[in-house]
Amino acid sequence: MNRSPAAPLPRVSGGAARSAHGPNLGDRAWSGLLGLLGGAVLLIVGVVVLALVHVARPALKAGAGTFVSSSDWDPVSGSFGALPFIYGTVVTSVVAILVAVPISVGLALFLQEMGPRKLRPVVSFGIETLAAIPSVIYGLWGLFVLVPALRDHLEPFLGRTLGFLPVFRGAPIGLGYLAAGLILAVMILPTIASVTTEVLKTVPASLKEGALALGATRWEAIRMAILPYSRAGILGATLLGLGRALGETMAVTMVIGNSPTISPSLFAAGYSLPAVIANEFAEATGDVHTGALAGLALVLFGVSLILNSAARLLVRMVASGPSRAVAS
Amino acid sequence: MSAAAPPKIRVEGLDAWFGETHAVRDVSLDVRPLSVLAVIGPSGCGKSTFLRCLNRMHELVPGGRATGKVTLDGEDLYARGVDPVSIRRRVGMVFQRPNPFPTMTIADNVSAGLRLNGWKGRLEEIVERCLRQAALWDEVKDRLHSPATSLSGGQQQRLCIARALAVEPEVLLMDEPASALDPIATARVEELMHELKARYTIVVVTHNMQQAARVSDQTAFFYMGELVEVGDTETIFTNPREQRTEDYVTGKFG
């Protein structure tokens, strides 16, 4: 992040004198231990990937070329195509991010900048509570409240008003990508909102004052000074939320419809990577089926890795170098 | 002691608080148009708070409030229904630490306030004029689209002055504008204040008495939230009325 010139660090003379004799034994042991812990994290990741590859091998051998590209998933006839699950995972996560990020940033601004001071702790407590609800309860709520509401109200309404877009076309059945995406939005909202609040706390007060002293309103100061300064952090918060959305299993499988198909309409039933793994693993018939599910896990891992890396790259690009400000 | 012209700013019975702390106590003074008033006093004497009451920035601090009367050309800034935002467009401010917007370019920093006001005219000319007024143009004219953070501290502070000038304020408040700068940059900012008072009324808070003596026409000495004495700078430094003022300006305390 860009900071105004930092004050020079004071030199601690005592430390310099001691380091002349080399790092002491305690320090060396401690840093060795930390290095071990750091290495262990990488090791665990490696072991997980290796195990998945091992289990997935029969399926990858059977249909190596078509596993990721085929959209046909039929364990009984032995065809395993992962595309519907990849599609479902990506679509629901994108819906979740599109819905959750604006709301979360709004909530964070309310908590940190605009909200009445007395209301802030109440809202903050509400957000924390959302984070503490187990996902199966979100699933139940989705099934009993969200899905009927989508089926009877929101989806018919969207079809009437925005039906010219393919994503809002089709029969309003409730269960489907939209329901899963919205549930995910609620679930990742606390993560994004609380991280964004922390990010906003790091904005120097002097920047906000600079904007206000120019005659900016509070909202203008937010747009002019606070949000531009925080964009890298907000992207990071989004990335954390995305990570959670990609891997969420229980709530999604309860409302997505669990149908291994690909449909352009958000109203249609679909499936997601974690959902199908959880649903079929216990009843998997034979090595190839099990292997295909392990393959899906590898794909999920890969999708997360790609999205994470892309987001990280984006954070770095945004964090370095100012761009031209958006003119009002 | 008061000039024939009506005061640009008149402060009458101003009190300011931070929560329970009574930071400014019953202060009254006049600021002459197109002059520099220096506000001096030891740390914590309320001089910055006083300054921030002149453009209603003080009330932005949690627990900050002020009572009394501050008039700008006879118009009460604290009257009911006065929008503080519109006051801050007339009374600009430069802060202790340079605070350019780090995500903006040099040119965008200067024009930031104008763009807020929905200015539709040509920004380039105004950017150039303000940077010239802030004595920064020659140093940055070839890199107007570089990040503001690429400038040195002293340049950043002059950029902040240019930014404040761009919205054409009538008054410029400066809160220890040179305290974070090296001596050369400080000299440039002081020089600048001399030039700027031809067009703006300036109130500058400083802990540096030599600086107050060099740049100001009038000086106000604050102590423990009270205005001890205000008068022509020469008088304050050579022949003050109050013993406390003399002790402070001669370095006996503070």
Any overview of this molecule?
The longest helix of chain A has 38 residues. Chain A has eleven helices and two strands; from the N terminus they run ααββααααααααα. Chain A has a single domain, classed as MetI-like (MetI-like fold), CATH 1.10.3720. A two-stranded antiparallel sheet of chain A has the order 1-2. The radius of gyration of chain A is 24 Å and the shape is globular. Chain B has a domain of 168 residues: P-loop containing nucleotide triphosphate hydrolases (Rossmann fold, 3-Layer(aba) Sandwich), CATH 3.40.50. The radius of gyration of chain B is 18 Å and the shape is globular. Chains A and B meet through helix 7 and helix 8 of A and helix 2, helix 3 and helix 6 of B.
Give a nutshell description of this structure:
Chain A has a two-stranded antiparallel sheet with strand order 1-2.
Which short descriptors sum up this protein?
A: 328 residues; mainly alpha; MetI-like fold; two-stranded antiparallel ribbon; 11 helices; globular; disordered C terminus; B: 254 residues; Rossmann fold; 6-stranded mixed beta sheet; 4-stranded antiparallel beta sheet; 10 helices
In terms of DSSP E residues, the strand content of chain A is: under 5%
Give me the count of strands of chain B.
10
CATH superfamily of the domain at 9-100 and 174-249 in chain B: P-loop containing nucleotide triphosphate hydrolases
Helix content percent band of chain B = 25-40%
